[in-house]
Write a structure and sequence with these properties.
heterodimer; A: about 220 residues; 6 strands; B: about 425 residues; alpha+beta; Heat Shock Protein 90; 3 domains; about 70% helix; transcription regulation (chain A); Sig_transdc_resp-reg_receiver (chain A); DNA-binding (chain A); Response regulator (chain A)
Chain lengths: ~220, ~425
Amino acid sequence: MRIVIAEDDALLREGLALLLRAESLDVVATAADAGGFLDAIDAHKPDVAIVDVRMPPTHTDEGIVAAVEARRRQPGLAVLVLSAYVEQAFATELLAHGSSGLGYLLKERVGRVQEFLSALHRVADGGTAIDPDVVAQLLVRTRPDVQLDRLSPRERDVLALMAEGLGNAAIAERLFVTDGAVHKHIRSIFAKLELAPTDRADRRVTAVLHYLEDSDRRA
Amino acid sequence: MPTGEARADQGTADRWDVLARARATLDALEHLFSGLGTVVLALIALLLVIGTALTCLVGVGLLLVPFTLRGLRAIADRERARLSRWGGPELISPESVPSGPRAAIADRATRRELGWVGAHVTLGLVLSVVGITLPMYVVRNATFPFWWWSLPQDEAASMSMGLWPVRDLYGAIGVGLLSVAWLVIAMVILPGMARLQAWPGRRLLAPDPGTDLALRVAQLTATRAAALDAHASELRRIERSLHDGTQNRIVAVTVLVGAARRALARDPATAEDILGRAQDAAEQALAELRGVVRSILPPVLTDRSLADALTGLATACPVPCRIDADIPIRCAASVEATAYFVAAETLTNIAKHSQARHATVKVRRDDDRLSLQITDDGHGGAEERGGSGLVGIRRRIEAHDGTFMLDSPPGGPTTLTVSLPCGS
């Protein structure tokens, strides 16, 4: 897997590269700003880009803008965006054109190497990785949602993991249940939320995220 | 004995009354005396206005109009400041000076100022002269018995104002006693005269009641907005240094610790190196956190003075640095903090980039501004785009409504000049 890293903080950039190289992943280039990052994408045609949201000069959302531009230049490029704090607007902006091959994680998740690597692989394989905090923010509602309230606690757990982008097997592993049980929960969730059932993980993420955002707006 | 006590109280009250009256008389004298100063200024303004008006008839005066109007405003402002110092409501100067003769005629404030000039050079002059003459009479009469003999006879005789002939010492002592009468007259009428002299200024130099309030509101809104802005930009600065500095360091620590744990399982030898880096990152995080906390308000600034804080900076600076501070009155804490950080940041820049052998920090307080000048003999060529922290310095100064000037020709020397409103 060929990786380009864009992160303005030198220590963090080198730390990330060190971590990934130790896992025998191929970090082909690192960049300290959006311009350097796009040059590296053009030059190396990587499989995955890991991008920090806040970069010079304005330290606001350069990373998101650069990620969207990189995907425009190289369709199918998997992008994992790292953020210092959860900002639902960034996630929405990033996922505006589908969620396939996209990830949005808090920076500190990198420290949980096993989970970070599985998220990275998931994104590289065209899946989705949404930070649990983003999902949690979406699930915290200001007003009760009748359809969501119909879900059992177990189904809510499954819904959250599904929104993070996890596949059936990973959900089963996380919740210590069988694949079949997960399958059954998911069918029930889709029925209760009145969503069209689908087995493809990325479509599921989009459907679930849209549902949560819409109902958030309705609330 | 109740009646005795009451009488004693009465006596004390009278004595205090006399003392208070004496103090009021002295104050009034001071005001009449300083009023004479502005009478002279008003006279100059009057001559200027008349001269300009006359020369306007032949055309050339039109060129003088802006100068005259500015002069008139400056002189009226001086009277405003004088009357404001004396107590009562503060007299605020109108915002703008009218630009031409037509605007001046239309401008109510200018017309009122002209009215004041007229009143002050006539009534004001008479009151000042009489007010200053009265105490002179008191002194002259009181000392008369000591020098009466030196006067020609008929002149000495007139000193009693014709009440009695002054031919001997007794007559002279009689004149001396007249000073008491003069003193009483002075004490009775001087305070009233001073108030009367100030009256035209208080009426005519105050803004119209309507504009007064509008002006106050505008001023307060502007200062309040500036304060809020400064506050917000300060918070933004703190947030940014926490986010992009400290937080990133700590994230790096978790990333490296994560990597080290993986390495322990796979190849323990490499874990040592990674853990070393993690420790470095943690130490950097601590150092940056300390920096952020200090940058919020350095303790030395609140405990001691700006001069002491700057001396501390100079001692810590690797480039030999001289502090030349003359700040007799302290400024607002936020202004001092800004000056301190500008100096700290600039000295760091000098040490890092300039290769200077010597630096000087000069701080002065001129009226309501704090000026700061930092000079080094390094190779110059400093510019804001160099990422040398100059942008941050400018932002901090502008947040306080200050000015910032950088002069750094290639080859040096570099001079940074900053001026901040004191806010106190």
